[in-house]
Amino acid sequence: MPKSKSRSTLLSRKSMLREEETNEEGMASLSDSEASLAANDSANETANLQTILQELRESCRESGDGFREVKGEIKNVNRRLDEAETRILEAENQQLEEVVMKLSKVQDEFEKLVELEGRSRRDNLRLHGIVEGSEDGSPSISAFIDNLLRDKLDIPKSLDLNIERAHHSLGPRAPPHSIIVKFGTSKVKDEILKRAWQKKGFMVAGRKVIVDHDYAPDVLKRRREYIEVKRVLKEKKIKFQTPFP
């Protein structure tokens, strides 16, 4: 009886051991399957990531190519703009130079005309301040001026004033208009002007008469531009001259 029980117990233990081994083998087989599946999943994910990375690289490469093309186009456009700007500036400079040359020529011609007009007036004097009509009773304005200058400037009868003509000036100013007197020679004209300046003018019918050169309009305009300078020089008693142009 005891021997039979021991054998039965032994068989039972062996059976349990076999089951445990079977279970362990099953578990091991299951673990291997899971590991295999996990490895496959990891490989797939890696492949997918590599694919995505490759696509990103290609996309970046394409974008880079596109950027380079755009950059190249912009560079070409800028170059063409620079060339166009250069041509425009050259054309404008050329036109400006031509305009400056033309203006310079016009200015030169104008200066020549002013000089010619000044020469034509070189033998003239202007008398400012004589009331119009004062010459009434004289044979002519020339005769009136001859007698007036001799009387006011103490000119001897022996000196021939040689007045060729005399007339009232025309202009927009209200009367009295100045009287322009043309002498036969500049020598006589200069002598009369010298005497008039020494006396600082003279009085006629209660009005002061000033004798001066017969300046051209443009010369008068230029002289007015430095009137203030002349005033300051006079205040400081600094002598100066303004030769007839």
UniProtKB/TrEMBL annotation:
Regions annotated as coiled coil: 67-109
Ranges for the region named Disordered are: 1-43
Transmembrane segment boundaries? none
**Annotated InterPro entries:** Transposase_22 (IPR004244)
Which segments show compositional bias classed as Low complexity?
Answer: 28-43
Record's keyword terms, sorted: Coiled coil
The name on file for this protein is L1 transposable element RRM domain-containing protein
Q: What is the lineage of its organism?
A: Eukaryota, Metazoa, Chordata, Craniata, Vertebrata
